[in-house]
Amino acid sequence: MAKFYRYRLPPWLRKCIFVLEKCSLPIMIYQNIRTFFIPTTLDVLLTAIVTGLFCCFYFDVI
Protein backbone atom coordinates (compact mmCIF):
# COMPACT_ATOMS: atom_id res chain seq x y z
CA MET A 1 0.00 0.00 0.00
CA ALA A 2 1.44 3.35 -1.02
CA LYS A 3 1.77 6.19 1.45
CA PHE A 4 -0.76 8.98 1.11
CA TYR A 5 0.86 11.74 -0.92
CA ARG A 6 -1.02 15.02 -0.78
CA TYR A 7 0.70 16.54 -3.82
CA ARG A 8 -0.94 14.01 -6.13
CA LEU A 9 -4.38 15.35 -5.26
CA PRO A 10 -6.26 17.81 -7.49
CA PRO A 11 -5.17 21.42 -6.95
CA TRP A 12 -8.48 22.52 -5.40
CA LEU A 13 -8.39 19.71 -2.82
CA ARG A 14 -4.73 20.33 -2.05
CA LYS A 15 -5.50 24.01 -1.43
CA CYS A 16 -8.37 23.09 0.91
CA ILE A 17 -6.05 20.81 2.89
CA PHE A 18 -3.42 23.54 3.18
CA VAL A 19 -5.98 26.10 4.38
CA LEU A 20 -7.39 23.63 6.90
CA GLU A 21 -3.88 22.85 8.11
CA LYS A 22 -3.08 26.53 8.69
CA CYS A 23 -6.41 27.22 10.44
CA SER A 24 -6.38 24.19 12.72
CA LEU A 25 -4.06 25.65 15.40
CA PRO A 26 -6.11 28.83 16.11
CA ILE A 27 -9.34 26.82 16.07
CA MET A 28 -7.82 24.27 18.49
CA ILE A 29 -6.64 27.00 20.88
CA TYR A 30 -10.04 28.70 20.85
CA GLN A 31 -11.87 25.41 21.36
CA ASN A 32 -9.60 24.38 24.26
CA ILE A 33 -10.15 27.71 26.01
CA ARG A 34 -13.90 27.46 25.46
CA THR A 35 -13.98 23.89 26.79
CA PHE A 36 -11.96 24.93 29.84
CA PHE A 37 -14.50 27.59 30.84
CA ILE A 38 -17.81 26.03 29.67
CA PRO A 39 -17.37 22.24 29.41
CA THR A 40 -20.35 20.72 27.64
CA THR A 41 -20.46 17.35 25.94
CA LEU A 42 -20.42 18.94 22.50
CA ASP A 43 -17.40 21.09 23.39
CA VAL A 44 -15.45 18.11 24.65
CA LEU A 45 -16.28 16.16 21.49
CA LEU A 46 -15.28 19.08 19.25
CA THR A 47 -12.05 19.54 21.21
CA ALA A 48 -11.15 15.89 20.69
CA ILE A 49 -11.87 16.08 16.96
CA VAL A 50 -9.96 19.33 16.41
CA THR A 51 -7.00 18.17 18.52
CA GLY A 52 -6.88 14.87 16.63
CA LEU A 53 -6.99 16.70 13.32
CA PHE A 54 -4.18 19.01 14.41
CA CYS A 55 -2.07 16.03 15.53
CA CYS A 56 -2.63 14.33 12.18
CA PHE A 57 -1.40 17.44 10.36
CA TYR A 58 1.53 17.89 12.77
CA PHE A 59 2.77 14.31 12.39
CA ASP A 60 2.16 14.31 8.59
CA VAL A 61 -0.50 11.60 8.66
CA ILE A 62 -2.73 13.68 6.38
Which stretches are low in confidence, meaning pLDDT under 50 for 5 or more residues running? none
Form type: elongated
Straight-line N-to-C gap: 15 Å
**What is the C-alpha radius of gyration, as a whole number of Å?**
14 Å
Order of helices and strands: HH
Largest sheet entry: none
Structure classification: mainly alpha
Helix content: over 70%
Q: Beta-strand level of the residues, as a percent range?
A: under 5%
Mean pLDDT: 87
Instruction: Give the helix tally.
Output: 2
Number of strands: 0
Short note summarizing the structure:
73% of the residues lie in helices and 0% in strands. The protein is mainly alpha-helical and 62 residues long.
Structural summary, described in words:
The protein has helices at residues 11-37, 41-58. The two termini are 15 Å apart. 0% of the residues are buried. By secondary structure, it is mainly alpha-helical. The model has no long low-confidence stretch (mean pLDDT 87). The radius of gyration is 14 Å and the shape is elongated.
